Amino acid sequence: MPTDFSLVDLVEGPVFLTGLSCLVWWAAKALHRRIPFALLHPVLTSIAVLIAVLVLAEIDYDTYRDGTAIIDLLLGVSVVALGLPLYRRIAVLRRNMAGVATGVVFGGLVGIVSAVVPFLLMGADAASAVSAAPSSVTTPIAVVASEMSGGIPALTAAVVVITGIMGAVVGPIVLRLIGVTNPVAFGLALGTAAHGIGTARALQEGELQGASASVGLCLNGLFTAMIMPLVLALLL
Length: 236
Prior knowledge:
This protein is an all-alpha fold. It has 2 domains: 7-81, no CATH class; 83-235, no CATH class. 82% of the residues lie in helices and 0% in strands. The chain contains 13 helices and no strands. It has helices at residues 7-11, 14-34, 42-57, 61-67, 69-81, 83-88, 90-95, 97-121, 126-132, 139-148, 153-177, 183-205, 207-235. Helix 2 packs antiparallel against helix 3 (42-57) and helix 8 runs antiparallel to helix 9 (126-132). It starts with 6 loop residues before the first helix and ends with a helix. The mean pLDDT is 87.
């Protein structure tokens, strides 16, 4: 029996939405290579373009999420792949365990305070301030931690993306300006402050930097989830 098939079905289907996302990402990377401006970071550019397309095409987020499920699957695999450089450099990281632990604790505390205090100084309500608290943590942990503390998950997700992009773009510049040359410290700082996007940036510097960033990403997520309620209670 013939089936009805419209242009809407094609546009809202997984082939079009997945292909669109990949094409936008490829174009954003090409643009950033040609014009290496901070605000043209591929992640930020891709998000802006895709939001504009979805709004103009009147495609809701649930449809887009379902149509790009394969990308979510591949992202999960890519996160697991971060364990490879970690495995290769585990001996070096073990020798620096005390410094790694100190860096994660300090970075986690500074991440929460530096995100919440500006919101409070600008007169934002408690929910908005809480939403910014886990800004340095990877999105899945940040959204859950925010929601459990009374924050706004959507705002948290936006702040996390912005933090990651700024950390990946500005972080290496700042670290070099202040004289941080140790690869473990360099990677740990990026992973702790800028989660997954910072870790990807650290991998561009080298395998040891990427392995250190992976440790910072994981440990800071756990540490922030545990300590955030206490820090928020003191600040609010």
